[in-house]
Amino acid sequence: MLVESGRDDPVLSGVNHENDKIILSERASSTYMNASRSHYPSMSPNARSSNGVVRMQSQKTSEHIGPDGRFKSSICDQPNGFLRKQRALCLQYIQLMESVVRGYFMGLRECEYQFSAHRWNCLGYNLTIRSPPSRRKTGKVLRSSQAEGQSRSKRVRTYMDRLLSSGTRESAYVLAVTSAGISHAVTKACSSGMHDSCGCDRTIYDHERQPNFEWSGCSDNIHFGAAFSRKFLDSREKSRVLRNPKLGLTNLHNNHVGRQAVVNKMDIKCKCHGVSGSCEMRTCWRALPDFRSVGSQLRELFQDAVLVEYVNNRLVPKSALYRLAPVHIGNGYSRSMASESTSITNLPMPKENELIFTTRSPSYCHHDPRFGSIGTYGRRCSVDSKGPDNCNFLCCGRDFRREVFLQQEKCKCKFHWCCEVRCETCEKTVVVSTCN
């Protein structure tokens, strides 16, 4: 349902009305872009995520940054949510931690790109869920404000934290794409010589022998990058296995799928040598893929993700369990769809190149911190689109508001000798639809 906006709309505060036209000012644009925040009073942009990588990014102050712009080892000692093994890796490979942070956020940005038009759009890593102050068993509020602050900081979680603990299809993608991002960024850092313990890969790979072909011996070292990503990220999930084996094993599997996606997309690049580009000899090396191709491949795996169950200490596709389910045939009798030799131990395990999840996804239409859902209130939509950003779909059947702006922009630019570019100012009608 379409709702035309009026002058009294709070979203339009700060706009100038001239001749019944709405002129989009800088203040109005900022107000409009942040309008949806009012729907979520529990959100805070100053996130204190339980994820150590996110908190490292938030702690990038001059105190922990050296003159070369890289992290100091002191960043590893901060209360950033690292486990003991992660902290040890941080101290040992402090020069690579900048790449770890960069790779993690590269994965999140890719996730936002892939799902920008969907109900779930991969946002929430910097939006915290505020819990009420904890009370002791006696019902008394914590006496010390300092103790209360420390306790609260431990309880604070972001929407992304909740999502990654939900076991949904969306959490599988985030785990995979961030694992791939760290693998990609660390590999790139090694090839550029940022750390003494890693460099380019000088392995001579199997290749059909040709008289004019040879390996250059300096490929991107994806083996080190993937191994580092595995050690750094999997340590948290291995500790989770002890508390929640179903979720922990699922997350470990999805981390692996992300790393493997980068390995599978490694490309072979060659350079020709010879007189006048005759290519009498080629030297080739393995090069990192464009990360967009990795994100797109994981997006396809997201569509075909498999629902799993935890049976007899291992993960099994739920569809395979149906073969063991009894089918009612009347008169109180039932027969099994499975053959006599079928058993739990013979059921297939998830393939190593498919994403898996344990919990069916919510609609993501409404604000639901349990699943890390921000909802679609205040989201931009398209009335004419036939995709997931269609207003009727994105707004989940709720009303949406249509706002018409006149946006000023430069146009009819011409170059004048010498050396100046002169432009006219034109007005462009902008129609924006947002979900209520």
Automatic annotation (TrEMBL):
UniProt similarity note: Belongs to the Wnt family.
GO-annotated molecular function: cytokine activity; frizzled binding
Lineage top rank: taxon: Eukaryota
Main function: Ligand for members of the frizzled family of seven transmembrane receptors.
Name the record gives this protein: Protein Wnt
Subcellular localization(s) per the UniProt record: Secreted, Extracellular space, Extracellular matrix
Region named Disordered: 134-153
Naturally occurring in which organism (per UniProt): Mesocestoides corti (Flatworm)
Gene Ontology terms describing biological process: canonical Wnt signaling pathway; cell fate commitment; neuron differentiation
